[in-house]
Amino acid sequence: MKTGIFTAFVLICASFLVGKAAGEGISAVSKPRVNQLTSELLLDKASRAFEEKNTEKAIRLFRASIKYNTRYAEAYYRLGVVYAYIRNFKEAVSCFRKAIKFRPDFPKAYLNLGSTYGQLKNYKQALFFYQKALALEENDPVIYYNIGALYSAMGKQELAQEYFAKAKELTP
């Protein structure tokens, strides 16, 4: 039995036994909890599919995960990563924005949204979201590097070099 499925099975059984001891029966496992567990299991399967470069399956499973938990920021984020990978930037933007909506303190979502806007050559939006990521993770060299690359693409070499130097300084 796969680890994620086994963990969910154990959690459901434990909830059932606790409910049984309290005289509640099977209703002790709430529907929201079952939906959460199902969503997490689907997220795990989708992530594995993406690692195997099976993007169609990954998209299908991430969407199924979201169906069970419509406010699951991590699922929206990972779905956005898949869409960015296959260069469907419109869908990627939508997913990253939803991830941020449900988890406003999600620096990787801001970073990837900035990168996606950079791919679309919308440099103003890219910089805006990179700055949001930087406000949340001020010592992340990847964010500094991406801002440097963005300034370079904009022809602002002096600013680019400042951010590249900071990225290098922060890199372990």
Short description:
This protein is mostly helical and about 170 residues long. About 10% of the residues have low confidence.
Amount of beta strand: under 5%
Rounded Rg: 20 Å
| Largest β-sheet summary | none
* SSE run: HHHHHHHHH
Which class do the helix and strand fractions yield? mainly alpha
Q: Regions with pLDDT < 50 over 5+ consecutive residues?
A: 13-26
Number of strands: 0
Q: What is the end-to-end distance?
A: 39 Å
Percent range of helical residues: over 70%
Please report the number of helical segments: 9
**Backbone shape:** elongated
Please tell me the overall pLDDT.
89
Would you spell out the secondary-structure blueprint of this structure?
Layout: H1 3-21, H2 31-51, H3 55-68, H4 73-85, H5 89-102, H6 107-119, H7 123-136, H8 141-153, H9 157-170
Helix pairs in contact: 1-2, 2-3, 3-4, 4-5, 4-6, 5-6, 6-7, 7-8, 8-9
